[in-house]
Amino acid sequence: MLKTIQNVKISAIATCVPAREVDIYDNKSIYEGNLKKLNKVVKATGFHKRHILDENSHLTAGDLCIKAAEKLFENGFSKEDISAVIMVTQYPDYFEPATACVAHGKLGLPDSCIAFDINQGCCGFLFGLLVASNIIDNINKKILLLCGDTASKILGSQINAIDDIPIFGDGSCACILEYDTSATPMCIEIGTKGNDYDVLITKNGGYRNPPKLSMFDSNGNFQYDNYMDGLKVFDFTMNIVPPSINHVMAGKNWQEKDVNYYILHQANKMILENIATSANIDVNKVLRQTLSKYGNLSCASIPSVICDEHTKFNNKQNNVVLSGFGVGLSWGSAALTLDKPLVLPIIYY
User: Fold this and answer.
1) Cβ(264)–Cβ(276) under 8 Å?
2) How far is CA 305 from the centre of its chain?
3) Which of 158, 225, 263, 272 counts the most CB atoms within 10 A of its CB?
4) What is the DSSP letter of 98?
5) 185 close to 313: Cβ distance less than 8 angstroms
6) Dihedral angle sign, alpha carbons of residues 35, 39, 45, 49
């Protein structure tokens, strides 16, 4: 689905991550301590440090989103102007109610403000952007878009990792979108390959496979049974994402020279560079410094790049191409102009 969206402006972006920083080199069990092999993988993937919650922390993705949103309201935005709050997450505070309702209450938003969740992962920011934009076009008011995941809640710190490396960090973002008739139109594309839903999946804990005693370790930890077919996910990414980037650029009649930055889901360095080659875009415009600082932040990945590079975006105008891809299997891309938004530096909680 390729859609042109009118009258929508991204006015502000904030990203919040836990204060706790972990270093991949501190995990001596990875590759059985083979430093040479680890160095090679770090060089290829770009992963090095991450910010994750303490093992005993009761903070959630919702808490991190609320902290980010509070910082935006402290910078001049009024809660009374918010007509909807949308929360994109795979790690909700509760099965019910929606985490958006929890955030609504804790932020003290108006009773007239609607609140609901979207269950999406690495392309969640694009899904949220599309849904929020369609609502804005009908109510002509501001929307608070929250995106966040805390993968460490089910993946843990991966102390015993042998054949894999820790890649996921915890993080959330808050964005304010508003109706603006002078906003430059954005072009957005969303898609899903649901036949491949099971190549990236958390099998246990939902109603298909509800918790049983046999799913718990002796120490009480629940076995969520996370599974990823890395080769199929890579093939999906390389077959889908480069054409999607080209589609939204064509929708805007943009050439390479018209784009200031490409802001892609931070899957890993090798994937981002391969996407750039396949899409025939300038790899030097593909921002990818957050990989070594925060890892893969799922649906908060794209906003985290913008906030980490806030000096490039805060109160400045840039033509950007966004693209997210992952669980579902789903993807989304957008070509839009960030027109002098408020962009805060990364917030630590």
Assistant:
1) no
2) 10
3) 263
4) -
5) no
6) positive
Q: How does the average pLDDT of the chain come out, rounded? A: 92
Per-residue CA distances from 60 to 52, 57, 152, 258 (Å): 11, 8, 10, 39
pTM of the model: 0.93
Name the 3-class secondary structure at 191.
strand
Residue 205 tokens, joined: 């804990």
**Are 285 and 318 a contacting pair, CB within 8 Å?**
no
To 5 degrees, how large is the angle CA 312–CA 315–CA 317? 70
Q: What is the pLDDT of residue 157?
A: 42
Better pLDDT: 31 or 289: 289
The H or E element containing residue 334 is strand 330-339
CA angle 42–297–166, rounded 5-degree value: 40
- Nearest CA-CA partner of 192 in 57, 17, 329, 307: 329
Amino acid at 49: K
**What whole-number distance in Å separates Cα of residue 254 and Cα of residue 186?**
12
∠ CA 321-326-332, rounded to 5°: 35
Q: How many other CB atoms sit within 10 Å of the CB of residue 97?
A: 15
Task: Determine the Cα–Cα distance for residues 49 and 40; give it in Å rounded to an integer.
Answer: 15
Residue 36 is which amino acid? K
Cα–Cα distance between 48 and 41 in angstroms, integer? Answer: 10
Residue with tokens 């093939």: 235
For the segment 11-20, what is each residue's pLDDT rounded down to a tens digit?
999 999 999 9
HEC string of 54-70?
CCCCCCCHHHHHHHHHH
Closest listed residue to residue 339, CA positions, set 321, 317, 322? 317
Contact partners, residue 221, CB within 8 Å, separation at least 6? 156
- The backbone torsions φ and ψ at residue 342, rounded to the nearest 5 degrees and listed phi first, read -80, 120
DSSP code string of 202-247: E-SSSSSS---GGGB-TTS-B---EEE-HHHHHHHHHHHHHHHHHH
Number of helices and strands in the chain (H, E): 10, 16
- Whether 215 and 223 have beta carbons less than 8 Å apart is answered as yes
